[in-house]
Amino acid sequence: MSTDDPARKARLENSKDMIPVQGTVDVEVPIDTLWGAFTHANLWPEWNRCFFWVKNRDLVAGRQLVWAFQPIKWYYLYKMFATAKIVELEPQRKVTWQVTVFPGMYARHTYHVEHLGDGRTRFGSWEQAMGWGFRIIKRFWITHFTFVKDESLIGARRLETIYKNAGNLSEAAIRGAKE
Question: Which of 19, 88, 116, 126 is 20 to 30 A from 35 in CA distance terms?
Answer without folding.
Answer: 19
